[in-house]
User: Fold Heat shock protein 15 from Zooshikella ganghwensis.
Amino acid sequence: MSKQTNPTSDKLRLDKWLWAARFFKTRALAKAAIEGGKVHYNGSRTKPSREPVVGDTLTIRQGWDDKTVIITALSQQRRGASEAQQLYTETEESIQQREKRALERKANSASQIAPDSRPTKKQRRDIRKLKDHNA
Assistant:
């Protein structure tokens, strides 16, 4: 008996690759990010069904940071983090930009003065009155 292979089973979707490379926790999140324009394939928006090719460039926005990665290997299975990092390489520019932005965010947060304690119940009521009155 011969086993028939499905020609579509060999195809790898971009959302599945992003999930396998551990950029997103679920495929649904990866798909939503692609559809929301947070993932760019070779500099342009793409679809979740796009087939990634080794050597292509992805720009992925996660939180405050943009990561620019080059696909080095393809995988349909989600493995450990060390194995997932072998599926891509992040560009030097991307690493430097992320570090620079992290330092800027840290400097901005240091300039903000945190209150000594939480507001009391009376202070919270006063704050609510002000907000309701101004709205």
